[in-house]
Design goal:
314 residues, alpha/beta, TIM Barrel, two-stranded antiparallel ribbon, 10 helices
C-alpha cells in the first residue's frame, strides 16, 4: 500500500538482434538466453513477447555485407527494414523502435564515417538521416539514434519531417558513456571497432555535468525521449536528468549488466530473479520512465506471477 515505486510491464522495452538469412537462430555465448534471429525465426519470439504484454522492441541489425560507409544501413532492403515490415504485418500492435547507427554496418566498426582514421561528425549526419527515413518508411514506430554525433537529433528530425514522417518520434541516446559494460553487445551485434575506440564521441564515465548538457541539447533539437546508457552504474545521471528536465526518460540496462547477473546466478552466487527485479526497480526509482533490458521477458513473467498471486489471495 505504501510502495513508492511500482515497476510494470508497460515500462519495458526488449532489445532484439536481427540478421540476414533464413532459419537462423544463433546463440550469443556471452549473453545466455539471447540470440541473433533471421526475420522468419523471430516470429515465435515475438509471439512470446506479445503474450507477456511487453509493449515495445528495439531492433539492432546485422547486415549481410559491410563497407566503409555502412551503406546497407539505409538500404530499403536492409535487414532492419525487412524485419520492421515483417513485424508490422504480424504484430501491428507492437511498438517497433529501431537503432540508428553505422557501427554494425561499417567495415571499420565505428559509429560514423572515417576520414584519415577519425570519425567525421558532419559527414555522418547525412547517413543517419537516410537511415532514419528508411526505417520510418518501412514502418518503424520510433527511431533511436545511438551514434552520439553532435546535432544528429536535429538533423534526423528535419529529415523525417521533410519525408512526411512528422509523427515518427525520436528516442535519443542522449548520455551514452564510453563504457566497459558494452562488451557482450559488441559480440552480439558484431560491431567492435577494428582500430582505436569510441572515446572521442562517447562520454567520459567520470563526467556528470556534461551528461546534462548533452541531454539539454537533444531536447532542444526535438528529442521526444532521452536516454541514459548504461543504467546501473549511472543511476545518479538518471536521477539528475529526471529532476532537472522532467522529460520522458529511458535507461538502457546494457549487455554487461545482463551478463554479470547471468554469470553470478549460474555460479549460485545470487538469486537471479530477485536480483533482476531489484535492479530494474532501482532504475525506475532513479527516474527512468522506460527501461530497455534483455531481462524484459523474465521481468514480465515475474510481474505476471506477482499479479496472479495477488488476485488469488483475494
Amino acid at each position: 500500500m505504501v510502495r513508492e515505486t511500482c515497476l510494470t510491464t508497460d515500462d519495458l522495452i526488449y532489445p532484439l538482434f536481427v540478421k540476414a538469412g533464413k532459419n537462423e537462430r544463433v546463440a550469443i555465448p556471452s549473453m545466455p538466453g539471447i540470440y541473433q534471429y533471421s526475420p522468419d525465426t523471430l516470429i515465435p519470439e515475438l509471439k512470446e513477447v506479445a503474450s507477456l504484454g511487453i509493449p515495445a522492441v528495439l531492433l539492432f541489425g546485422l547486415p549481410e555485407h559491410k563497407d566503409d560507409l555502412g551503406s546497407e544501413a539505409y538500404s530499403s532492403e536492409g535487414i532492419v527494414q525487412q524485419t520492421v515490415r515483417t513485424i508490422k504485418q504480424s504484430f501491428p500492435e507492437l511498438i517497433v523502435i529501431t537503432d540508428i547507427c553505422l557501427c554494425a554496418y561499417t567495415s571499420h566498426g565505428h559509429c560514423g564515417i572515417l576520414e584519415e582514421g577519425m570519425v567525421t561528425n558532419d559527414a555522418t549526419l547525412a547517413s543517419l538521416q537516410k537511415i532514419a527515413v528508411s526505417h520510418a518508411a518501412a514502418g518503424a514506430d520510433m527511431v533511436a539514434p545511438s551514434d552520439m554525433m553532435d546535432g544528429r537529433v536535429g538533423a534526423i528530425r528535419t529529415a523525417l519531417d521533410s519525408a512526411g514522417c512528422i509523427h515518427t518520434p525520436i528516442m535519443s541516446y542522449a548520455a551514452k558513456y564510453a563504457s566497459h559494460f558494452y562488451g557482450p553487445f559488441r559480440e552480439a551485434a558484431d560491431c567492435a571497432p577494428q582500430s582505436g575506440d569510441r572515446r572521442s564521441y562517447q562520454m567520459d564515465p567520470a563526467n556528470s555535468d556534461e551528461a546534462l548538457r548533452e541531454i539539454a541539447l537533444d531536447i532542444e533539437e526535438g528529442a521526444d525521449i532521452v536516454m541514459v546508457k548504461p543504467a546501473l552504474a549511472y543511476l545518479d545521471i538518471i536521477y539528475r536528468a529526471k529532476q532537472q528536465f522532467g522529460h520522458p526518460l529511458a535507461a538502457y540496462n546494457v549487455s554487461g549488466e545482463y551478463s554479470l547477473v547471468k554469470a553470478g546466478a549460474t555460479q549460485g552466487m545470487i538469486d537471479e530473479r530477485g536480483t533482476v527485479m531489484e535492479i530494474l526497480q532501482s532504475i525506475k526509482r532513479a527516474g527512468a520512465d522506460l527501461i530497455i533490458t534483455y531481462f524484459a521477458k523474465e521481468a514480465a513473467k515475474a510481474l505476471q506471477e506477482t499479479e496472479f498471486r495477488s488476485q488469488k489471495s483475494e
